[in-house]
Amino acid sequence: MLNAYHSTEPALQIEVISPTVQGVGSKRYVEYTVKLKTTLPIFNQTESIVKRRYSDFEWLHKELERADTKIAVPSLPDKAWQRQLPFRQDAGLFQEDFIEERRRGLETFINKIAAHPLAQNERALHVFLLETDIDLNQYVRGKLKP
Hints:
This protein is an alpha+beta fold and 146 residues long. The chain has 3 helices and 3 strands; from the N terminus they run E-E-E-H-H-H. A hairpin with an 8-residue loop joins strand 2 (29-38) and strand 3 (47-53).
């Protein structure tokens, strides 16, 4: 029988999949499904599926930058301000090729972060990957208790 250390699969797999445009008019946004599968004991769940927006990735990025660690936090895909300008001839932020490019960038970002041993101890990462909602009223910055 295979265990976490002798498996043919990676101990940590994160996919950012199924981007979906939500809302209407100026309230539109893209929601991504973040799917986690892990055998690492630091995570209290072996599988998780949560919905996240770009702003949630920004929140995680800021939290990790504020954390008292030596983590070099990778960049997020660009905010794409020019795609938000009115009177564009295309769909701007909601154009399929842009959404796919951003999805790939977000997937790269979250995999780099989650693979870092110091980041795995940060409460923000666990909230981002495992909690259905990021409740900032309940969230307390810091490291997980051993």
